[in-house]
Each structure stands twice: as C-alpha cells, then as structure tokens.
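pinging the channel bc i need a second pair of eyes. not urgent but kinda urgent?? the chain im working w is below, pasted from the shared doc
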Amino acid sequence: MSGFGGGFDASGDTPSRGGSSDGKPRRNYDEQTLIPVTIKMIQTAMMDPTGGSDISLKDGRALHMVKLVAAVRTAEDRSTNMMIDVEDGTGLTQVKVWVNEGDDCSEVQKMRTACAVDGTYIRIVGQVKEFDGARQIIANDVRPVSSGNELTYHLLEVAHSYEKGLKMREQQQQVGFGGGMGIGIGNMASAPPQNGMGVGQGQGGGMGGGSALNDAVILAIKSLGAGNDAGANVNDVINQISSQGHSADGIKQAINHLSNEGHIYSTIDENHFMYAE
C-alpha cells in the first residue's frame, strides 16, 4: 500500500507486501490477525526472551498487526514520513506514517491532512516496533474516526478479542498441541479439528476465513487491493465473486465478518478494504 501508510516491513525501510523480505519463515495466519489494543497494552508487551524482534502481549498473543483508536496530540510532517504523537487515556505513543515519493491519491492526501489536526481521534492500523528502547507504531493505514461511537466500539473490541484469545487457548489445551494448531482466529468453532485439519472448510480454512466464501473474499481483496492506495472496492469484490454463485448480500456479510475478525480493514472509507498481511 503506497502513499498514506506505506506498507513497510519490520525495520520500516523496505516494502513488505506479500511476504518476508528478510528470509525468515512467514508467520502462520493466527499470528497475522489484526489485534485491537490500547497504548498501555503496547507499552507493557514483552520482547522475545531469546533476543528476537517479536513482541508479545502479557496474555501470550504475538503483536504483528494492531488496531488502535487514539487522539492526536502533536504531528510533525517530514519529507519522507509523518510522526504523530497519540494518546488514548491509557498512555502515549508515537505513530510513523511513511509518505511515498510520487504519491498523488487525493483522498489519501486529504485523510493525511485531517489526521494531523491536534485533538482529532484517529484509527491506526500498523505494526508495533521498538527502536532505541522506544516503541512506536509503523502505520499501514490511518484515518479520522467517523464518530465518537468508534472509540467505544474499539474498547469493546479490545475486551472481546482478549476473551476470545483466552477461549482459543483453553480449547487448544483441551485438544492437545497438534489439534489446537488447526484452530484459526477467524473461526471460533467449539468443536476441535478433525484428522489434523483446521476448522475451516477445505484447504482454504488455513487462511483464517473458515469458509469457501470468506476465503474467496480474502483472495479478491488481496488481488484487487494490490498496488491500489485505497484498497479493494466492495462493489468490485462483489462483481468478481458473484460469478461463483454467491449473492451480493452474502458477500457483504462475509466482508463484515472478516473485518470484525481482523482479517481485513477499511481504508479511505467503509467501502474500501485491504488485507491485514
């Protein structure tokens, strides 16, 4: 994702769409799920005890992609990036938004300007990184919230995600290590996996979608959103998938489900989505 939000990797220096550029094994899907957090959760997260770069919450969940709603306190516009200091009542952190050379998406530029206004509540999607002992979020997407209800909803999401993670770990312990690995975040079914397979339908369940339609939506959003600052348009997704026998209403429901579960996230508005890589 170019322009506003950049799509940079762990170091914040090189593009990372679609895979690992440092030769490390690609994370499994459960670890890539978007996790709603507060700033205090980021500040109290633990570094990898083996000396790696991974950061994990106290409850054991790895922080790969996070979602945060917070208020802008200061913003500094630089030639290659924007640095935004934000707080949410639990703490203060810094957000780095990369600006790609040649960026000409007017909607992205408008959103970037709106997010620089002090006191504005913004929604941030990105990766938590630590540099010189200080943690910051390298943003993939930043936009102003649509209403005050979005902050309330985000806090409910934080609580729900925590409870869901606890249930999943309890379920994994009950079925044993081998079976528990098959349970995806996007499909919290109560029954354990059978025959070593995940709960999702067919081979696509490994993507976290949990059904053929959900997996088709993820694939469509990945392909349509590639190289597009705004992501995939919902109407384009419907047009691409409806030929497979799915209804428009069913596709919209799948998009809402995947968004709520953190597999995709909206960009410039609620009709454009990107895949949470």
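so The longest strand covers residues 65-77. and The first helix runs from residue 29 to 32. — does that match what u expected or am i reading it wrong
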